[in-house]
Give the backbone structure.
Amino acid sequence: MYKKFLDLGDQPLANSFFFNCNFSKKKIYKLKVKINLKNFLVSIQNTIPKQKMFNAKYPYRSSTSFTMKESFRKLAIKILKNFNPKLILEIGSNDGMFIKNFNKNMVIGVEPCKNLAIETRKNGFKIFSNYWDLNLAKKITKLKKFDIIYSANTITHIKNLGSVFRAISYALEKNGILIIEDPSLMDCLKLNAYDQFYCEHIYIFSAISLSSILKEYNFEIFRIEKLKVHGGSNRYYIKRKSNKDFKIEKSYKDHIAAELKYGLKNYTIYQEFKKRVEISKNKLIKLLNGFKKKKLRVIGYGATAKSVTVLNYCKINKNLISYFLDTTPDKINKYLPGCDILVKRYKKLKKKNVDIVFLGAWNFKDEILRKEKSFISKGGKFITHIPYPRIL
Ligand code: TYD
């Protein structure tokens, strides 16, 4: 049984950046969030066909953040040391930030967005530009199966989880290890990070819900690492139940206990989240209106998919945030989806141009504040809505 607990209004595709701002026509779906009371999986109610979201125009690049590059680099070292794999597969390799840490002959990427696949191939890596499913799994394992399958921020983007895990089960060696990482539901609720919900994030996993799904495919989580990236993520280490090389570790048991204690199996937790989200919306609008009254110059930083949810849910327009800055080439000089707010090419912040900066990429707060030290030291201010709207 499903229960809806959050309505974030009419929304556009979160990564559909356009040169014109004919925004009213581009709000194409109602963003509602529900929970499955059987396995406690949280998902969005209305989904968009994958071809509309993940295609040759996909703008997002992992390489735009130092934090992600570092996170992938450290994981690659750990994988080589702990598992000594001969062959690795990455599902959703984006612009190659993870696989570039390995020898070209020991790693294969799957990336349906052709622009990103082409870019990574240029660096000599083998990339299949297809959506992940059993047909592809069969095609790429003709010679050998994988010792490690890794996927970051991708599995939650695929609607048919059955198809995903059946294909993984086919492609993984008998004692191979699956590692997936995605935003954590518990962190999302704790931080009031309602902007983790948008068309691409079909699911926000908890260890509880993921364990329940994996069981159906004879997989189990044996280790969980908590990560700071993407606003709080979990990295799940998964094995076949039949694999006795690894025991279920304390990190898994502790994590499940923490999720149960927080109340992820109680519907009231989700109702309370909804109330906090509404308060957050009102506070953010009030804060921005206050700046406007004082004639302060407000811009945004990081034209994230998350910002798209915030701006459209809170109905924020260019009267409140003049423009956004971003480093992503395919977002520059285009409008934030659903809004009349333009994305401009990133330039170091200067107090003479700007007073207040809304942190769209709040998940990279430390990296960004470090970069903009000089702006802050001259009295420039950042604001965030996480965990509640305030000046930093
Ligand atoms: P991110 O938060 O990873 O994702 P999502 O779009 O999934 O919500 O996006 C970060 C965005 O912020 C991306 O468009 C690049 C931009 N960015 C900057 O412009 N400057 C920076 O210093 C950083 C870290 C990110």
Remarks:
- The first strand starts at residue 2 and ends at 11.
